[in-house]
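WARN no homologs supplied; continuing
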Amino acid sequence: MSKRRTMYRINRFLCLLSTFLLFLSIVGAFSVGIVTVTIGNTDFKVSYFTSPATINTLVKELDENLTDFCEEEDISKEVFLSTTGYSFISSIQRTVIMDTTTTEPTNFSYTSTIIGDYTKALNNYDKENGIERSDEETERIVNEAVDIFNRTCSIQNNEHLSRWANVVNYKFLPVILAAFILLALFLTSYLNRLNGGRKLKYNYIAMSFTSAGLVMVFIPLISIVYGIMRRVNLTNIDAYNEAIKQCVNSMFVVFIIFGAMLTGIGAAMFAWTYKYYRMKLLESDTEAEIKRNLVK
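OK structure emitted
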């Protein structure tokens, strides 16, 4: 009897350990999968970095940053704003997103397109207003204006952002995802063996699914409710910080949806297992009652 009790305890411990590892593998698989298709996906991020709110904020900041300089040089800031306005800033956002994975982001101060366009716009402005300006003076003004654009729209000092972005863009994420899935399948099969093929295994699997689902629901929900991402600034540009926060919060919503689904699956498994063993118990009681009646 003691040996059987010992074996039972070992078996139960292995079941609980496998259940915990299955829980971790489910959370890991869904986490890697969701991160890969959301903030690890350039197209997903583009929708936030090119949103009207983001671009309008950048245009407003560029306007403010050019004001003092243009007043000092006695030049209309529209010379530069009309050249690198809403449409142009929208067009460079994919480049900006690519820059999130490097500690050396694009320096627009050396972008020939902007320099050429600013030079052309300034020359036209001078011609229309009868202003004579030397080539050296034009070059100086253009370079300073481009530097202002660069400080406004290029991700600078983004070492922390780069580390964060490289994790979610990690090229081995699909391999990690596959490893989690294989581990989950192995643990499910192992739980089946530990329970001798009995339906009791579904209780352990349900426990893993329900736990994983609750974790995936409540942790992102707490982050959204308490605005944790609003306290994290990964760049020195407010518009980009806001776009990143919106990206992450949207990812959290996906976590909550899948977490609710997993919780529902786990609850359904618990209900099915309970119903199954309830029916087995009723059948056993009925069979015992028949036998007692036959003996009488």
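The first helix runs from residue 2 to 37.
OK
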